Amino acid sequence: MTNTGSMHNDGELVRRVADGDKAAIRLLFHRHHARIFRFVARMTRSESVADDVANDVFLELWRQAGKFEGRSEVSTWLLGIARFKALSALRKRTEDELDDERAENVADASDDPETMAMKESKSVRIRRLVDMLPTEHRVVIDLAYYHGRSVAEIGEVLAIPVATVKTRMFYARKKLGEALQAAGQDRGWP
């Protein structure tokens, strides 16, 4: 479709969505859904999460269309919504994984003392290894995995750019993985 008239301009379509025009949201969905889906799939490495988030983006568009101020392109605005929702989904997934890890470490009445010690010692060893990281790496790991903060929130808390948070996270995870491997344990994350 070409942008030959204001009727086909994304900004105008958002204004029409704000007025309750379902055809306008369908057109925006067809124009932007695939890009949003691919963006979120790359970010989350999960097509099912990407599908849910992409659909949530358009639900959010329906709710928030009246607040769009046109300071950015509609596609940029939608990707910003997608990024926020993807980070929330990733944070929830991390929390769920941490809950699973905690559940694994709960003492089972049928566990013998040796098994209980092995479960406890893995989490203690991981925490000790985290504590041995340089401060800049330890802090990002702590905020992400023990406090459930997103990359953006970590950047805000530490007053550093998101790219710096990601770099620190990369090196921290790499060092932890190497230390765990040297200790004869699997990393415990993908």
Can you describe this structure?
There is one protein chain. This protein is mainly α and about 190 residues long. About 75% of the residues lie in helices and about 0% in strands. The protein has 8 helices and no strands. The chain has helices spanning about 10-20, 20-45, 45-65, 75-105, 115-130, 135-145, 150-160, 160-180. The model is unreliable at about 1-5 (pLDDT under 50).
Detail the topology: elements first, then pairings:
Blueprint: H1 10-18, H2 22-44, H3 47-64, H4 74-105, H5 113-132, H6 135-146, H7 151-158, H8 162-182
Helix pairs in contact: 1-2, 2-3, 2-4, 3-4, 6-8, 7-8
Q: Write down the Rg.
A: 22 Å
CATH topology of the largest domain: Rna Polymerase Sigma Factor, Chain: A
The SSE string, one letter per element, is HHHHHHHH
Question: Runs with pLDDT <50, length 5+?
Answer: 1-6
Just name the CATH architecture of the largest domain.
Answer: Orthogonal Bundle
Largest sheet, in brief, is:
none
Beta-strand percent range: under 5%
Q: Taking all residues together, what is the mean pLDDT? A: 79
Number of helices: 8
Concise structural overview:
The chain is mainly α and 190 residues long. It is 75% helix and 0% strand. The chain folds into 2 domains: 6-90, Rna Polymerase Sigma Factor, Chain: A, CATH 1.10.1740.10; 107-182, Orthogonal Bundle (Arc Repressor Mutant, subunit A), CATH 1.10.10.10.
